[in-house]
Amino acid sequence: QVQLVESGGGLVQAGGSLRLSCAFSPSTFSLYAMGWIRQAPGREYEVVAAISRTGSNSYYPDSAKGRFTISRDDAQNTVSLQMNSLTPEDTAIYYCAAAFNPPNPNHESSSRVYTESYTYRYWGQGTQVTVSS
C-alpha cells in the first residue's frame, strides 16, 4: 500500500517561511505525480502546488504563485514544499498527495500535473500550518 507521511508543519509568524516534507512509500515514487493540498477551516480543498512525476513541470494557483515552491527527490522518495512570505490566509492543514501517472506509450505524461484535489488517490494524514499575525 501507498503511504505518505508529512512533516515540517508548525507555527510561524506572518512573513516567515516554512518547509514541509513528505516521505513516500513504497519505492514506486517515480510513477506518481505529486501535490500539496490544503484545507483551511470552512474552506474546500485547494491544490497549492503540484509537480509532474519527472519534476519537469509544476503548478501553483494564484494564491501560492511566487511564494511556494514544490520539489521532488526521486532518490529519496520525498516531495517538499517551500513556503515563503506566509500570511494568516495560509493557515490550514496541508496534505501530501499522490496521483498514479505511469509512462504511457500513447500519451505524453511526463509533464502532467494534477490541479484538482479529487484527482489524487493517495493522501497523507496532514500537517498543521498556522501563521500568526
What do these coordinates show?
The chain is mainly β and 133 residues long. The protein has no helices and 11 strands. Strands 2, 4, 5, 6, 9, 10 and 11 form a 7-stranded mixed sheet that branches. It has a 4-stranded antiparallel sheet with strand order 1-3-8-7, with no helix packed on it. The protein is globular and about 50 Å long. It starts with a strand and ends with a strand. The relative contact order is 0.32. The model has no long low-confidence stretch (mean pLDDT 95).
Keywords, please?
single chain, 133 residues, mainly beta, 7-stranded mixed beta sheet, 0% helix
Briefly note the structural class of the backbone: mainly beta
From the N-terminal CA to the C-terminal CA, the straight-line distance is: 40 Å
**Shape type:** globular
* Main β sheet profile: 7 strands, mixed
Could you state the oligomeric state of the chains shown?
single chain
Q: Residue ranges: pLDDT <50 for 5 or more in a row?
A: none
Number of helices: 0
- Percent in helix: under 10%
What is the rounded Rg? 14 Å
Q: What is the H/E order? A: EEEEEEEEEEE
Q: What is the total tally of β strands? A: 11
- Strand content is over 45%
Q: Overall mean pLDDT score? A: 95
